[in-house]
Amino acid sequence: MTQDDTPPAKQRSHGRISVQASRKPRDLMADVRIAGAWRAKVITLFPDAFPGVLGLSLTGKALDLGLWALETIDLRGFGIGKHKNVDDTPAGGGAGMVLRADVVGAALDEAAAGTPGRAEWPVVYLSPRGKPFDQAMARRFAAGQGITMLCGRFEGVDERVLHHYGVEEVSLGDFVLTGGEIAATALLDATVRLIPRVLGNQTSTEEESFSDGLLEFPQFTKPAVWNGLEIPEVLQSGHHGNIADWRQAMAERLTKERRPDLWRAYCASHGRDPVEDQEQ
After folding, report:
1. What is the DSSP letter of 55?
2. Does residue 205 form part of some domain?
């Protein structure tokens, strides 16, 4: 079988998008039922990994309602030759295998169909050498029209394809996973929850960790006394001003103690001295 005889790459869509397999890229803009819905395209060797937990709870409900849409593009469908090879030995020698530039490039070309410029639709490769993912990045992604995500495997991706397509490398942390699917799921969850109407109460995203550069204050609920431990009195006072002051103070204290890096950045942005009130 020649490369031109390659059967269609498998594509799976979730949410209010029609499902079909075709070598001709589909225009998702025309398929989405809800105007302006945020969309994600995930290039992966394991399309069955999606939507996974993204299909549950609030993100799953939002997916069903068409508030966002998810499409998986099976990288194996772009493989070369009889055995659909997607990888080869690293140039210069070494252990493991590397995803081929021509295979990944063909998948990225298909994913690009119907998408706007990078400012509104970034292309991301999940990589431990990438820029650390944070809440600000999640907000940036959520503010666009969608995202294309490339899930790596083996020893990584041919460097040339990353440069040619201007792919943005993003890391979830200083550790290595067997592939990018878990990282892609985490990134999508953090991003999708910021889309309007997904959480129902959008105010909740304004008070959680990292919303203002601080970790979130401690939370309590019923019963008022549990195992001899009481809810702080101020939270039961009904005085909203005092409660707000307490929460702010606790958020600052936790950030100082647990994330000095965040605390220094917060103080710099608010014109404060990071060594002030260390004992409070």
Report:
1. G
2. no
Which neighbouring-strand residues pair with 71? Answer: 13, 41
> CB–CB of 76/45 below 8 Å?
yes
User: Has residue 198 been placed in a domain?
Assistant: no
Q: What is the largest CA-CA distance in the chain?
A: 75
Structure tokens at 70: 């998810």
Determine, yes or no, domain membership for 181: yes
Q: Which residues contact 154 (CB under 8 A, 6 or more apart)?
A: 87, 96, 97, 98, 99
d(CA 240, CA 219) in angstroms, rounded, equals 15
Q: How far apart are CA 29 and CA 161, in angstroms?
A: 26
Taking alpha carbons only, the member of 266, 230, 268 closest to residue 248 is 266
**Residue 71: which of 155, 157, 136, 9 has the closest Cα?**
9
CA atoms of 266 and 72, how far apart (whole Å)? 38
d(CA 126, CA 172): 8
* Interval 166-214: pLDDT, tens: 999 999 999 999 999 999 999 999 999 999 999 976 555 555 556 688 9
| Inter-CA distances, 158 with 90, 92, 222, Å | 9, 13, 54
